[in-house]
Amino acid sequence: MEGRPQHSARLPVSIVGGGVAGLEAMVALRDLAGDRVEVELHVPRREFAYRPLAVGEPFGAGRVILFDLGELAARAGASFRLGSVIAVDADRRHVVTRDGHEVPYDYLLFSPGARMLWAVPGAVTFWGVADEGGVADVVRRLRERELRRVVFTMPGGAIWPLPTYELALLAEAELARVGARGGVTLTIVTPEDVPLGLFGVRAGERIRELLAERGIDICHETVRLWWNRFGPVFAAEIKKRRRLLRRGCPEWRWHLDEVFVKINGKTHYLWRAVDHEGEVLEVVATKRRDRHAALAFLKKLMKRYGRPHRVVTDRLPSYGAAMRVIGNAGRQECTGRRINNRAENSHQPFRRRERGMLRFRSMRTLQRFASVHGTVHNHFNQERHLTSRDIYKRNRSAALAEWNTLAA
Ligand SMILES: Cc1cc2nc3c(=O)[nH]c(=O)nc-3n(C[C@H](O)[C@H](O)[C@H](O)COP(=O)(O)OP(=O)(O)OC[C@H]3O[C@@H](n4cnc5c(N)ncnc54)[C@H](O)[C@@H]3O)c2cc1C
């Protein structure tokens, strides 16, 4: 809500959107401010559709109750305007409606609902009324024994996982009702540590029992499985696109550095090469930190990126020995205290993730994670501190759009 306080008798407040949020605000304003506000509701449709069990609708279990918004507004002492808002002019404090009217306001509450940007690619998604047909079709195919195994899942980062569980339980009840439960496997795949963990660990244990009683499997593998399957594919594609751009660069300088990583108590080494702009070129995990490891690392780099103009390293003698073998000795620089900060700072995002993941259990997972993480970090790292907000937002949108095409 934005606006400036006024000392006139009634403050004009515009509410855009006649969903739960808009109506709650209207009623709350009436209760809290009474006659001191003059509320106007902008809605594209005359009815408010109350859906107490939206997920039940594809199963024929939910019901929709329609309320007349004009009546609700009148009961809350608000006025009511039919039509979508297409623009807000915050400087002149008015909203523009689809039929061309400019409606002034002092305070504006904008509650047009959420819009889905991302779901699990390839899945039948249930986001609300518009997707009811897709879910109803899955239910029909289950009833007719056309489908035998169904996975109910949600993308990582979902803050309200309840509908996934409701859909699985409703599907199970429906199959039991029509006598088609036998031979059908229903599985919930969730990124949560505990089922419905937002209600607490004990509730999670009860949910697990409830699902077991109904023969619904639960698996906590979403993030790992999706990551394992798609992470390397996305990373390879991003790498391919960026590699060609960087090779022609006149200032082609590499910074190399290595850090210690403990796996099951044993020290391993993670070698990292970044270029003069801090872009991660390669990350390689090894068991040793000697000439052979440095040589393997350099060979891998040169195979992919050609020969650099200069290579900045720390004073580890293995670099010098490997450079001599490979014929790069004249290009190595290893003096100066902060000269290799580019590579040293580049380990930080990895270190943060390493802590979050409670370290690694094998060198293979370390290698796979570190190289995918480096590439994805390149893609989304917009160097916020170096650019204006406008450029940053433009670059971020471009990166997201590219990511969405990769994931499509
Ligand atoms: C899968 C799923 C299942 C759910 N199940 C339930 C359930 O069983 N029970 C429950 O209570 N909740 C459920 N919810 C949550 C509930 O749908 C939302 O919390 C609630 O609808 C959010 O209300 P809102 O007012 O923010 O948005 P919305 O309900 O989306 O309302 C937005 C309103 O703004 C209007 N609008 C949009 N653009 C404009 C514009 N330019 N100008 C004017 N008006 C505009 C729209 O027409 C709409 O009326 C579920 C949600 C999901 C995703």
Summarize the SSE layout with pairings.
Blueprint: E1 2-3, E2 11-16, H1 20-33, E3 37-43, E4 47-50, E5 65-68, H2 69-75, E6 79-82, E7 85-89, E8 94-97, E9 102-104, E10 107-110, H3 132-143, E11 149-153, H4 162-177, E12 185-189, H5 201-213, E13 216-219, H6 222-247, E14 253-263, E15 266-275, E16 280-286, H7 291-305, E17 310-312, H8 317-326, E18 332-333, H9 341-346, H10 348-356, H11 363-380, H12 389-407
Parallel strand pairs: 2-3, 2-10, 3-6, 11-12, 12-13, 14-17, 17-18
Antiparallel strand pairs: 1-10, 4-5, 7-8, 8-9, 14-15, 15-16
Helix pairs in contact: 6-11, 7-8
What does this structure look like?
The strands form 5 sheets. This protein has a 5-stranded mixed sheet with strand order 1-10-2-3-6, covered by helices on one side. A 5-stranded mixed sheet has the order 16-15-14-17-18, sandwiched between helices. β17 (310-312), α8 (317-326) and β18 form a beta-alpha-beta unit. The chain has 12 helices and 18 strands. It has helices spanning 20-33, 69-75, 132-143, 162-177, 201-213, 222-247, 291-305, 317-326, 341-346, 348-356, 363-380, 389-407, and strands at 2-3, 11-16, 37-43, 47-50, 65-68, 79-82, 85-89, 94-97, 102-104, 107-110, 149-153, 185-189, 216-219, 253-263, 266-275, 280-286, 310-312, 332-333. The longest helix has 26 residues, at 222-247. The chain has 408 residues and is of the alpha/beta class. The protein folds into 3 domains: 2-110, FAD/NAD(P)-binding domain, CATH 3.50.50; 129-220, FAD/NAD(P)-binding domain, CATH 3.50.50; 249-381, Ribonuclease H-like superfamily/Ribonuclease H (Nucleotidyltransferase, domain 5). It binds flavin-adenine dinucleotide. Residues 16-22, 42-45, 51-55, 84-85, 111-113, 126-128, 163 line the site of flavin-adenine dinucleotide.
